[in-house]
């Protein structure tokens, strides 16, 4: 079956890819594209390795990368790991500094991460206010931001990704993934096929249930 073949190919990426950044981004896209159920073991092992490594060396290897550090923080918290903002997001303490990132994608990921804040985490509360204001200004002023990035910004401002019903957002994320500069064609085709198969199953179940009404 083609779906199983593509699943195996994507699983190989987890083994072949040694860099942390591409793997973190891969995990994020797998979840957004509705494929997490096919890669639960790989995702759990990868996040566990990141967390354990950070505990052993008292530092996360992605701290110097704004986009990836916020993404890493969000994924770990979503999966139940007890990480603190200072563990990964040390650069957030300078969010009001003029030298802070002016990349819309970075600020969008920052906003997504801040929605996972806990009571008393002032640094995340401040970062959320900063991100919302920055992104609203960027959209209103139509700064030099590509259309597909503006779509992501508006999407994030409307509602955090982890508050949404994941399945209803898959088609939107597939469209976004197609705009990615270095997107993986196998992952893209797998997401489309998986969506069609799952959608067909759901429609069949609804049809069968309607018979009993």
Automatic annotation (TrEMBL):
InterPro entries: Terpene_synth_N (IPR001906), Terpene_synth_N_sf (IPR036965), Terpene_synthase-like (IPR050148), Terpenoid_cyclase/PrenylTrfase (IPR008930). One of its GO terms (molecular function) is terpene synthase activity. Residues 10-157 form the Terpene synthase N-terminal domain. Signal peptide: none annotated. One of its GO terms (biological process) is terpenoid biosynthetic process. This is Terpene synthase N-terminal domain-containing protein. It comes from Pisum sativum (Garden pea).
């Amino acid at each position: 079956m083609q779906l199983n073949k593509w699943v195996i190919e994507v699983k190989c990426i987890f083994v072949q890819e040694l860099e942390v950044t591409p793997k973190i981004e891969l995990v994020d896209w797998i979840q957004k594209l509705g494929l997490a159920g096919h890669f639960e073991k790989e995702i759990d092992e990868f996040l566990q390795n990141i967390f354990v490594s950070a505990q052993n060396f008292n530092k996360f290897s992605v701290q110097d990368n704004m986009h990836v550090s916020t993404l890493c923080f969000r994924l770990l918290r979503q999966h139940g790991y007890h990480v603190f903002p200072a563990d990964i997001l040390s650069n957030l303490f300078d969010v009001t500094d003029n030298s802070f990132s002016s990349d819309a994608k970075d600020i969008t990921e920052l906003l997504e991460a801040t929605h996972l804040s806990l009571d008393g985490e002032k640094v995340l509360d401040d970062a959320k206010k900063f991100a919302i204001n920055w992104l609203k200004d960027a959209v209103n002023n139509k700064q030099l931001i590509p259309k597909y990035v503006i779509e992501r910004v508006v999407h994030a401002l409307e509602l955090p990704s982890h508050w949404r019903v994941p399945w209803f957002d898959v088609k939107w994320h597939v469209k976004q993934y197609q705009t990615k500069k270095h997107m993986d064609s196998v992952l893209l085709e797998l997401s489309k096929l998986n969506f069609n198969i799952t959608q067909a199953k759901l429609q069949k179940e609804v049809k069968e249930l309607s018979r009993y009404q």
